[in-house]
């Protein structure tokens, strides 16, 4: 019985050692390359592509980083994006902005820094725009905490005739303009 046990353990040990082939430098290089590629492939193959707009608003450096979802024939407002509920203003991780200097948003001071950008869409009134100090949220509004709000302002949406398939957030007059489907949401920033 003891001999049978020793043979069994020896056979398993031999199998384990012979099946564990150390990686050659070539396979390590390929592994290192493929480790970096999935992330870039994931970003490129996302259903809601990552967009980064880097420029100036009122002569000051400004950056916005967001996932750009498509309409895809869906009903957006009041359905996919419910009214009176915090929306991450994009897709995937939280949308965020980065200000190089203090600015005013709709006449209210917003200090230089990075902020997540949330919106509360409303059916027949002004929309609430929220700047939150927790800017690096992996799951957008699911991690949103109102206690971290730095600034809330009200903005009137404009409903246009033409529809835009992909969400865009552009640095243009009057500061930041959000467009998606028939929505145009201009946010005054100075």
UniProtKB/TrEMBL annotation:
Disordered as annotated region, ranges: 28-50
Protein name: DUF2911 domain-containing protein
Organism: Algoriphagus halophilus
